[in-house]
Amino acid sequence: MTINWAGLFEVFAIALGTVLVVTTLFSFGVRGLSSHADARAEGGSGTVALTASVACFAVCAAIVLYGIYLIVV
């Protein structure tokens, strides 16, 4: 039995990159919601922050669902 080190490294690198992207997008989404709440408290609309946070959460959800799709299929 031999280990395909190149394949193992490839899976590790892709998983690490995906984790970094999803974590960063999620944190931007939470920050956007916080900015939206701050803007609403100050009397503004904060729609840009809300739109950006929803987009970040949607991309996170799409990445997670695609990963589940790859596992199942």
Task: List the defining traits of the structure above.
73 residues, mainly alpha, 2 helices, 86% helix, 0% strand, transmembrane, membrane, transmembrane helix
Tell me what you see in this structure.
The protein is mainly α and 73 residues long. It has a domain at 26-73. It is built from two helices and no strands. The two termini are 26 Å apart. The model has no long low-confidence stretch (mean pLDDT 95). The chain crosses the membrane at residues 7-28, 48-72. Keywords: Membrane, Transmembrane, Transmembrane helix.
Label the structural class: mainly alpha
- Strand fraction equals under 5%
Separate helix tally: 2
Task: Round the Cα radius of gyration to an integer and report it.
Answer: 18 Å
Please give the number of β-strands: 0
- How far from one another are the termini? 26 Å
Q: Can you give the helix content as a percent range?
A: over 70%
Average pLDDT score: 95
How does the major sheet shape up? none
Q: Which segments are poorly predicted (pLDDT under 50) over 5 or more consecutive residues? A: none
- Shape descriptor reads elongated
Secondary-structure element string: HH
Summarize the structure.
Keywords: Membrane, Transmembrane, Transmembrane helix. With 73 residues, the chain is mostly helical.
Please outline the helices and strands:
Blueprint: H1 5-41, H2 47-72
